[in-house]
Amino acid sequence: MTHTNNNKNQYKVAIVTGASRGIGAATAKLLGAQGYRVCVNYHKQLEAAKQVVTDIESAGGQAIAIQADVSKEADVVRLFAETKLKLGAVSHLVNNVGILFTQSRLVDLSLARFNTVMNTNVSSCFLCCREAVKTMQAGSAIVNVSSGASKSGAPNEYVDYAASKGAMDSLTKGLSLELAADGIRVNAVRPGFIHTQMHADGGEPNRVERLASQIPLQRGGAPEEVAEAIAWLLSDAASYVTGSFIDLAGGR
Ligand code: NDP
């Protein structure tokens, strides 16, 4: 017996944060193809977000793009209110937004950078979870996009980023236990070495290629491969899975 979404008559409505490119865009497109009504959240890249919406619609799905800086409380409140108005109450949430800055040792990090990373990666996750939980019902699900860095610590590269992902892991575990009795599941994926533009922000666009030979599967991953795991965790197929983590780092 599978325990499915109780709201059979309602559409599944998903917000994917940071969905203008990379893993978020791949996830939004996959969820669109699976019949979710999708809110493509973006920060700065309007055209890219519009293209994701067009791609979803071309494949027969329904989507909208909403600009919101999810590290800001007012933006998150507006994001959820606007999504509810246009698509319906949010039943599924993917906290995908994550940033990092140039590779650096901890001793050289500024407090401003540390706080920006924590606000963008962790506060956004907290705020979106809080708004989502207000309307979610049994059968709803949240997936947080953490990172293999939460376990490795990313020494000499981005300890600030790794620490933010560690915080997301703890938030995932705690919230999953708070919501389990309500039938709302909370899980996370921990990708690593995925071909996206994020590595350029870290100062090394070819980081995945450089490290490929050290990855057991001998290659980097595609955003679509992460999207598959996220979609599965959101789906009723994962109805007995909560507080769990899927590592997607080629064996690392
Ligand atoms: P990208 O850098 O390719 O994309 C980041 C996305 O986040 C963009 O759509 C960007 O929007 C959006 N964004 C950034 N800041 C904000 C904000 N304040 N509010 C709203 N949206 C924002 O990232 P990836 O696809 O590589 O990564 C996605 C997630 O996966 C992140 O959490 C990352 O930490 C995690 N991850 C990635 C790995 C990898 O190897 N790529 C490995 C491990 C984890 P816009 O462009 O419109 O500004």
UniProtKB/TrEMBL annotation:
The keyword Oxidoreductase applies. Coiled coil: none annotated. Keywords: Oxidoreductase. One of its GO terms (molecular function) is oxidoreductase activity. Signal peptide: none annotated. The keyword Oxidoreductase applies. InterPro entries: NAD(P)-bd_dom_sf (IPR036291), SDR_fam (IPR002347). PANTHER family: OXIDOREDUCTASE, SHORT-CHAIN DEHYDROGENASE/REDUCTASE FAMILY (AFU_ORTHOLOGUE AFUA_5G02870), SHORT-CHAIN DEHYDROGENASE_REDUCTASE FAMILY PROTEIN. Belongs to the short-chain dehydrogenases/reductases (SDR) family. This is Oxidoreductase, short-chain dehydrogenase/reductase family. It comes from Shewanella piezotolerans (strain WP3 / JCM 13877).
